[in-house]
Amino acid sequence: MEADQLGRLPDILHAARLIASYVQGVSEETFLADTQKQDAVIRRIEIIGEATAHLTEVTRRAIPDLPFRQMRGMRNIVAHDYGNVDLRIVWQVATAHVPKVRAVLERFLDNLHPNHGEDRAPS
Description:
With 123 residues, the chain is an all-alpha fold. It has six helices and no strands. It is globular and about 40 Å long.
């Protein structure tokens, strides 16, 4: 796998981990009332989508369990249709979909670099 591709995948993983930290211990109601948390999560969704856009087809095929099209699509919605963003959907993405992305990428990167997990910050 090309070096620039290997750089994008940790970017996605880092953003997913940050999203998890932003919503940890937070209820949906609290999230919906907290524009700072919303902004933080939305920014990381943008990063995930932008990094995804730069992945090659070869990289995408190597990780078939990731929903690349949806990841990019969500980024486009929050970046370009920001006035119509449904925060309940953002919450669902942050609490249901991003953890799956995180798990798939951690597994993929651990298999690619077996010692990768040793440097991982605790979740």
